[in-house]
Amino acid sequence: MEIVNRPAPPTGLRRRLWRLPILxxxxxxxxxxxxxxxxxxxTGRVSGxxxxxxxxxxxxxxxxxxxxxxxxxxxxxxxxxxxxPEVVLQxxxxxxxxxxxPISADDGAELMARYAPRHPVAARRLCQIMGFAVDGSExxxxxxxxRIPFVxxxxx
Length: 156
Hints:
By secondary structure, this protein is α+β, with helices and mostly antiparallel strands. The protein contains 6 helices and 8 strands; from the N terminus they run E-H-H-E-E-E-H-E-E-H-H-E-H-E. The chain has helices spanning 12-18, 20-26, 76-83, 105-118, 120-130, 138-147; strands at residues 2-3, 37-43, 50-61, 64-68, 86-91, 94-103, 132-133, 150-155.
């Protein structure tokens, strides 16, 4: 694994494009995105106002949902949920309250190593967007998983 370029979170037009799926949720069409994408409604750490972000579900199990902050700890949604962990999730047609908690780097490595074989194209693309060059090996994906923050959303 090689760090090629750690990009800043998207701004301007790129940010608007990343946020387009929010419109689908507002139109009550979130189920079209399936179970791999969720709408996260959280509280702004400075403003105290509701904020929304659409993020990919990396894992879903009996303990809840797990997502990765692909642009690191600098993105607003990650900083907001670390400051105020009570959130609302919309996944497909379901809405639920949850509590956010960070996942350790070792657990993140394990999550990424399991995610990559299940979704190889998405894993490579995700790594590319985040600025990592991977050779497709489990070791590379584990190293990426150690370097990006993961969050578990546990239903209330």
